[in-house]
Design a protein that fits this description.
Elements: E1 25-26, E2 30-36, E3 42-52, E4 56-60, E5 70-75, E6 81-90, E7 100-105, H1 119-129, H2 141-149, H3 164-325, H4 332-455, E8 464-465, H5 467-470
Parallel strand pairs: 3-8
Antiparallel strand pairs: 1-3, 2-3, 2-5, 3-4, 4-7, 5-6, 6-7
Helix pairs in contact: 2-3, 3-4
Amino acid sequence: MGQGPFAARKADSQSYANRRRSTRINHETPVILSGRDARGEIYRDETITEIVNIHGARVRTGRKILVGMLVSIECLKTGRGSKGVCVNVYEPTAEEPHPAIAMQLLQPGNIWGVENPPSDWATVAATLGGGISPMESSWSGVAAAQSEAAPRVKSFPKQPAHSPSAQQASDRAQKATEESLARLRDEAEMITRSALAAHDQRLSERTAQAEARLAECTEQSATELAASVHVLKANIVAELVQVSMEEVKARLEGIARAQEEQLTQHAARLAAQSEERLAAKSAEEVQASEKALEEWLGGLMRKTEARVTELTERAVSELATAAQALKVSLPADLVEGSKKALRPSLEEISKTYKEQLSQHAARLVNESGAHLAAKSAEEVQAGEKALEQWLGGLMRKAEADQAARVSEALQGLEVVISNFRASFADDLAAQNEKSIQEAEQALRSRLAAMLSSIMAPGQAAPVTSDPAIKK
């Protein structure tokens, strides 16, 4: 159960409990328990007994009273009291929820007011006091001890007051009583010294045990604290690194998204501008080509008409020349008829030639459109290639900037983590030193209180209610 003052202990063969030779009974009666507790505080509490016998009782109390401490008890029912010694301490359990102590009376007696006590109580009282009644008070323990240790004086027959033998017998009895009292004082002083020596020895042993236990607990606590702090520090550093990395990652992702959106918008804007320029340029070239083609066709048609007219005129002139050579005069209506006969052929030839020219013009227009489309596609590809090169350079520059920012953020994070580790280690060392000093100071205060409570005489204190009893 541990080495604490309230731990249950196996009774020593020389303890008061093993020297008890009277029957215990369950008896509850109100009493006043007073003295000085382990903290050095003077108390005077009203409580009750649980088990009693002629040698002592089990008293319910929540005070910290150590084994071997002096206590005073007074029964409120009978008005009798006695001093005693704490011989055991009972901690609260499931069966006995109330804390209590076992006390041994310095002078056995029925101070509890038990009307029909067990038969062995009277035997013990007669053995100790030579016929002392079990109801007799044992409050004056020293006087009772003196009367117990004093030798019995032989009873002589009553003599007249003026008889010399009666006077001598009275003197001898008084002298024997004084000698017995002197021997009793010497024996009581010897017993007190031996008891104090034994108590000092027990106190030294308990102090050494307490110091060893404190050192062990302090070392164990320091080890556990160091392990806990190491784990806590590792967890905190890991958490800080994770949080910082998440923040840096989120910031980089945001920057990348913003850069990507800006690049996409810029690329779309450049593509739209390029398409508009290409469309405008293609439309201008097509218009110019169509205009040039129309001018060329117009000129060609004019040349064709002039050529047809020239051929017609030549045919007519040749026909006239042939007629003159044949000395044939051609009438005007024949000439006109010939012209009219030649005109359909000429018109058909002109129409055929015009269709051929139209087909050739359409082919030229198609070839021009294809050429313009190919040229536009080449220009678009060249623009896209230039745009890709520009975007690649911009992306490489953005990646370099992001890498530099990430490196700078990680360096700052490492510096912050290093400073945090150093400050955390300093705070931990200071807290460990402070905890050890507080534990040593508390132990010294407690030992001083224990020594003062043991060595100081009991003092009276006002009656108070025990919190444990009220529960």
